[in-house]
Design goal:
This protein has 259 residues and is of the alpha/beta class. The chain is built from 7 helices and 11 strands. It has helices at residues 19-22, 28-41, 58-65, 77-86, 124-136, 151-155, 213-222, and strands at 48-52, 69-74, 92-96, 108-113, 138-149, 161-163, 170-179, 184-195, 198-209, 226-232, 245-251. Strand 7 (170-179) and strand 8 form a beta hairpin. It is globular. The relative contact order is 0.17.
């Protein structure tokens, strides 16, 4: 779960300074290794990477330490501020932009959009614009790898969860509510921060949209990209009905105009 592309001030604002602590249990290195396995699977090489919805830049920094040149882009100025504070690597640059308005004036070997960030783009037309923009920022033959929370995951309200433990500075209580009519999942997030002997509470509301595999595949094609893979997360298997996270691999064609 990385940053919000809707422009809502309620999400990824107050939580930004705490985001890395919130995500401390995420195996970032494993995600990057899986991404590299997907590159190998499709006999692709990458030197320059576009990290969309980069959040606080954790993946961008891992990629830079593994030899890639990276541009991290996020819609949240608060998250980019945290990314810049935490990054002292010359191989990484950060910019505040929405992916549906992406305009960098350069191309990349690989674009990634991880941690179900695409679910935060609530308007399907904006997703279509984002895919078109990604295609325009890839060199011919360049890959686009992203993941989404599946329709199943949002329908089952898997975001409903708590985190409490001794010694934790940040605890949270999340309650998800899925609206089948709009395909939107609303997550009311309450955070509890220990500041010395006091505890401070703040709240954010996060919203994700459920996109079917078929609709995303069609939007990728309309955006000028070839769909290479649709996989159950962290595997080379096809998704099943209860798959909660799905990875997509697409490619800008080597020749010919985009549609």
């Amino acid at each position: 779960m990385d940053s919000n592309e809707t422009g809502s001030p309620a999400a990824f604002t107050e939580v930004a300074p705490w985001y890395d602590e919130l995500m401390s249990g995420v195996p970032y290195n494993m995600w990057v290794r899986y991404m590299e396995e997907l590159l190998h699977r499709h006999k692709a090489k990458a030197g320059k990477v576009l990290d969309l919805a980069c959040g606080t830049g954790k993946v961008s920094r891992i990629l830079a330490n593994r030899g890639y040149t990276v541009v991290g882009v996020d819609a949240s100025a608060s998250m980019i501020e945290q990314a810049k504070k935490a990054t002292l690597l010359p191989a990484v640059r950060f910019k505040v932009q929405k992916m549906q308005e992406l305009c960098l004036g350069e191309t990349f070997d690989l674009a990634v959009c991880l941690f179900d960030s695409l679910n935060y783009v609530l308007d399907p037309e904006d997703v279509q614009l984002a895919f078109r923009n990604v295609c325009g920022h890839l060199r011919p033959g360049g890959l686009f790898i992203f993941d989404v929370n599946s329709v199943y995951a949002l329908e089952q309200e898997l975001f409903t969860q708590n985190s409490y433990g001794l010694g934790r500075r940040l605890e949270y209580r999340w309650k998800a509510r899925y609206d089948a009519a709009t395909r939107l999942c609303y997550v009311d997030m309450r955070f509890f921060v220990k500041e010395g002997s006091r505890q401070r509470e703040f709240q954010e509301v996060h919203v994700q949209r459920a996109y079917s595999t078929e609709s995303l595949q069609e939007m990728l094609r309309k955006g000028g990209l070839e769909v290479l893979d649709t996989l159950e997360a962290y595997s080379m298997r096809q998704p099943v009905a209860r798959t909660d996270r799905i990875f997509f691999v697409a490619r800008r064609p080597l020749e010919g105009p985009t549609e």
